[in-house]
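Q: Convert this sequence to structure tokens.
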Amino acid sequence: MSHNSAVLSILEKIASKDKDFRYMATSDLLNELQKDSFKVDGELEKKLSSALLTQLEDTSGDISGLAVKCLGLLVRRVSDMRIEDLSKALCDKVLNVKAKDQQRDIASIGLKTVIAEIPVLSTSTISNQVTTIITSKMLEGAGNKDNMDVVSEALDILTDLLSRFGGLVPAEHARIKECTLGYLGDVKVMLRKRAMSCLAAVSVHLNDALLEGVVTEILAQLASGKGLKADVVRLYIQAIGNISRSVGYRFGRHLPSAVPLIISHCEKAGEGDEELKEICLQAIDGFLQRCPLDSRTHLNTLLGVSLKYLKHDPNFVDDDMNEDEGGDGGDDDEDGDNEDDEEEEDYSDDEDISWKVRRAASKCLTAAVQAYPDAVSELYRQIAETLVARFKEREENVLNDIFSAYVTLSQQVASASRALPEADPASPLSLLRSDAPSTLKICARILSKSKSAKTRIGVLSVLHQLVDQLPASVADHAALLIPGVVNALNDKSGNSNLKIEALQFLRLLLASSSPLKFQTHIKAVSQVVCASAGERYYKVGGSAGERYYKVGGSAGESYYKVSAEALRVCEQLVVVLAPDAGSRVTQTLQPLIKPLFDAVMLRLSAQDQDQEVKEAAITAMSKFVALLADEISAEVPKVLQVFLERLRNEVTRLPTVRALATICSSVRTAADVSLILEPVVAELTSFLRKANRVLRQATLLSLEVLVQKYGQSMDVAGLVAAVDECVPIVADSELPLASLSLRFLVAVLEKQPSVASTVAEKVLPQAITLVKSPLLQGSALGSLQAFFLALGTAAGAGSETLMSKLLEAGTTRKAGKQAQHSIAQCVAVLCCSSSAGDSEVAKTVSGLLQRLSSGGATGGGVTGGAGQRLALLCLGEIGKRKDLSGMTQVESTIIASLASDIEDIKGAASVAYGGIVCGNVQKYLPSLLSAISASAGTPKRQYLLVQALGEVLGSGSSNSATISSGDLTQVLQLLLGNCDGEEECRTVVAECLGKLTLLHPTEVLKELQARVVAPSANVRVVVLSAVKASVVERPHPVDSCLASSLITFLSLMSDADRNVRRAAVVALSAVAHQKPSLVASHLSSLLPMLYEQTVVRPEMVRVVDLGPFKHTIDDGLELRKAAFECMDILLTACRPQIDAPTFMQHLESGLQDHYDVKMPSHMLLCRLAASEPSTVLAALERFVPPLEKTLATKVKSDAVKQELDRHEDMIRSCLRAIDALACIPGSATCAPFQAFLGKTVMAPAFKDKYLLLQRERAEADRGADAMDLS
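A:
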């Protein structure tokens, strides 16, 4: 009741005659309405509404303005009935012909506020009721032609209403259409414009017939041209442009008649009618942005018009500019050129608006480039030359739009070229590279001569893009570009953005140039860079008491960014000064060292500066000390003390830790870090206890390099403390950190063997636990092997003891199969270390053989299977590293184990056999091949032997490459001869063929290619699987061989056998993922075959009669699933080579398919909505039915938990795709999609799930932004 009494008190004051009382009362009411707990009874609602309506008519503008704000809050707090009453009352005020203009205006603002506050997707009926009321009233007002002010306000309010709720009044659409079309030809300009805006707003919600009528009538008026004034023609064309932007893809069907009309009027425009030309080009821009699919057939025509008017400058002629740019760059110092430039800069004509035409044309070109990434090569050929030629544009705003268009074109070129080989002449990047010299000369000329900061920022953005894509080309023209960059850095206008852009470009240029080549330019840039690094600081006092002060505080945020960027350039300049680790700085460059050092030291020593500057100064100085310590030896102690201070500061400790690692890892440093070594190690040790993962990673790296360089002189107590902190880190919870920790411990053991006993006592139990982890792999496993080796080599610990502990750990019940593989590798490393002689190896092998012969018993009560398996794995790993051919018992024991009754032992024996063959290929390979041939009648044994051969081919040892040509032929024929065996054997044969292809690509690919037409489908499947296995992520000689033959293999996607087709699809997925450049140029022929695999084929669906019920089996399901997964990979790897409309047609079929196909299809739709929003928007209406059908799917009443979970996953996946579609700009223009959102997605069954997914997506976006900022 407290709110009721407060409101009653306010209402009394609102009625006061005193203006100040009324103002304060209205302000108090605003504060009350802002409270979440505000609530009043129905009677008070009525009084409050009446009072606010009265306040709207207050003579004081301040009071009526506050009343409007209160009105917006009140709508959220009162009942639906009161909102209806408010809407009716406000409509009456707006339509009152006797009202004053001020009263009508404030009532109109109030009504728009009410419209804005009503929720679009409200579950109540208030939005329908209010929309009906206001639409009816405003149409009544729009029909009152006796008072055009009322008509104008009514149309304006209708525009706001229809933009939000146009879909709720379909019955009124025809009246609205007739009303607005009638006013398009009115004599009053304002009325025509408001009618046009209203028509564009309602067009989104019109059905196809009404929209057809609107567009047809406007186009008919334009086509007749009879009696139309110039301003009316302009309005009609503007209406066409606005409608096309509003309705998007739905306007596409009208382009065949609209495009010629627009271009015709553009061409017929009079010499001074620049406004008509601009409006025509804006309409073309709308066509390209909102109807990209239908605009494609008119692309050449639209580009021709845009290019023509990009050069449209009737009041200015510059015939000499092209001559200067077309030759060798001209002589920039010639008097004639300078006079031309002065005339160009001094030219001004306030009445000339032709620049608007050129600006609109540049936006059309940008829209075309963004809409058709797959046609970037052709677009580049058509528009690049003209864009570069127009870099001479005299109007600054237009010039920056031209720069933006060129940058967009360059970005699309880079995107399209990623999937193609760099040297491919068909690559768009080759076109950009060929034009780079002339473009760079023009950019250098503008950068040097232009006085406009905005223009120079624009040209630097172009250079930034070019240096990203063509670093070598830009570096070759550094001599031309440096003067302009120096001028930008010397700019006195105070434009920080210009300096930041110049410094960023300079940093990229330095990083991409050869340091030796850039030494000729370093003098020109070092002075201005040093000045920028210390900008806005000045020095006071003598050498005894130097102090630095910031000049003013007006520079704000941009000031520190200039210094930070300059410091990063200083870091690159240090590399230029000292490019060779084995030589000193040349005599001519010696004078540059001191100023550069002072500039960085100034920032490093200062306390009151931004975090970004501090970090940049620390990084730059670390590079200085690492490369030039011998040149500044007297200053190094001071620098190290500052580093120690920064290390103790929480804000700067992370960059300082990295800086110390940089200094200590330098091969040429003369800096003696031992001066601060003890406190540094103590600080670093304390950091290992912090929760910051990045800090701990950097700390472990820094500790490692410190120990490697100063380990022998380090304090043992400090090292032991660091070892203690590493103990909890050696665990599988954070394998990257565990790997770094083990590397540090290895360095400690190598430099301070005396701490081996401490390490063995504290760390070894953790290491034994880690080696048993099923997660252990990669670098962590390699670091653990190095740790065991270092521990075994160090004094006080023996390899034999360690091996015993490892073997014991490998036979415990907690040791799984993966753990035994890891333990076997560690045992082999210890056994085969350089300190262990052949006798030690023989002793270890004998012990392992004894374990095998005794059944693997360990005395610990563990069953023998695990012990035997571990012994076999150890023998295999030792065999890879040492030749065991001298121990005849090894081979026979392993072969005997192949016949074991335990499957795990047989598998381990297979691996072991492959391992010992690796140790001596010449001796063991013939017997292995003979065994494979002899086992033709026993598929299981043959599988194990072929698996052993796979170990040999894929071991990566140097011995594998020594297979003779005779052995190669025998191996190849043996594998090819077993391509038609049992399924599991075929799988391992394919893997072996893939590994063999990596060793001998030419010979093996030739044989595989010959079997593409093999009569057996099994053989063709093996061939494709072998090709898939031969594609690896790293560069490999096989790539060049595959490039010419890959299309032959992948053409099997059109094979008659579905298993072959699936194998071909999987192979295409692998190649596209690992080496997209191999398939990018062939996608035009491969994609149609792939799309055929996405179609449901009735002949592959069969019904199995199971007696009480029938079961439907779809034999093509796995093939379709693989095809959609392949489409997903191709969309990521080869987007520019994919025609999006065709791609979406087949995606649409996937959305209606089986659960297993719908899930990847939903993911594909999300990805496509993010990468190609305009294309997806054009087809958005087609996606509604399959998505709606998915949400309507119900599970059976007797469904088990697994089926319920699958159904729930499918619903979430579908809602996630819907959310991705809803995020597309312009999705609100698709009425069917908006209706689907309101009626189905926001229904009680899905609303909470959908809103939860939206929150999850928003949090993920925020997390990604935070990671980018870090």
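The longest helix spans residues 1247-1269.
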